[in-house]
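Record type: monomer structure entry
Structure origin: computed from sequence
Chain ID: A
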Amino acid sequence: METKHAWYMLGKPSPAYAQIFREFELVHEFTYMILSSCLQDHQVTTSAFKERIQAEYPPDIAQSFEDSLKDDNKVSWKCTV
């Protein structure tokens, strides 16, 4: 992190902040994964995206991502650059 006066390297969050940080981190990772998938393949499918999640994350985190995708099966996106 950079401020007006210094650079800070953020490491592991304190135990009191860890859960809040992890929730934010997962949203950030999920968003990044969607965007990078779209940039790599403009025709990426939800199925291919789920396969990538399963390949790159432990089962519990992959399941959290997949649960986010469900939302009554209303998941669709079109990638355009």
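Annotation 1: The chain has three helices and no strands.
Annotation 2: The mean pLDDT is 78.
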